[in-house]
Amino acid sequence: MREMIFIMIYVSFDMILGAYLISNMTALIVKGSKTEKFRDKMAEVIKYMNRNKLERDLRNQIKGHLRLQYEKFINQIIIRLHEEFFLPGEAIMEQGNVVDQLYFVCHVRQLELDISFHIRRQEAELALRMNGAAYNGDFYQLKSLIRAGADPNKTDCDGRSPLHLAASKGYEDITSFLIRHPVDINLKDKFGNTPLLESIKNGHD
């Protein structure tokens, strides 16, 4: 009986001591890691930018510079990436096995929905930026967006394309540039106006 009590106390003490050591080892591993250094460095940079009230473009450039070394590591992983398909209930790996690969387990259908959502959101953002450039007469930004893959036929919530906005403002350079691209010059907005009608209504020949 005494031996059983002693064994129970010993095992309990061993478990508590093991849990304590593991938690402290985890803390030691995390402390001083690249993740913590990056987080602290980014926090200091953000404080500096807030204190000096830097513009958004400059903020993004500074953050992008700090992320370069980590993005390089991600790109190296992507080069060696390959996909595998597992049937529902199939074991990917068993506990205790030595792992020499990194697995990202995902639901394909959900992943497709997420990707489609992000693509639609990016297209909407590009259309909004392109319409803003056309409205403000920013020819350089408009050309840059189209070269980056933005669709010049995308419309805003009122059905107006960049050509509608440029024609209504009388920006001849932007209007000529858009017409040379495969845009619908007879496209009507929700009010039934075409780019030509917008130009005439606003006194531009």
What does this structure look like?
By secondary structure, this protein is mainly α. It has 3 domains: 1-31; 32-81; 114-205, Serine Threonine Protein Phosphatase 5, Tetratricopeptide repeat, CATH 1.25.40. The protein contains 8 helices and no strands. It has helices spanning 2-30, 34-52, 56-79, 108-136, 139-147, 162-169, 172-179, 195-201. Helix 2 (34-52) packs antiparallel against helix 3. The longest helix has 29 residues, at 2-30. 13% of the residues are buried.
Total domain count: 3
Give the rounded overall mean pLDDT.
Answer: 73
Weakly predicted, low-confidence segments: 24-30
Based on secondary structure, the structural category is: mainly alpha
Backbone CA Rg: 29 Å
Shape: elongated
Strand content: under 5%
Count of DSSP H/I helices: 8
What is the H-and-E element order? Answer: HHHHHHHH
* CATH homologous superfamily classification of the largest domain: Ankyrin repeat-containing domain
Would you give the CATH topology of the largest domain?
A: Serine Threonine Protein Phosphatase 5, Tetratricopeptide repeat
Helix amount: 55-70%
Give the C-level CATH assignment of the largest domain. Mainly Alpha
**Largest sheet, if any?**
none
Would you report the number of β strands?
0
How far do the termini sit from each other?
105 Å
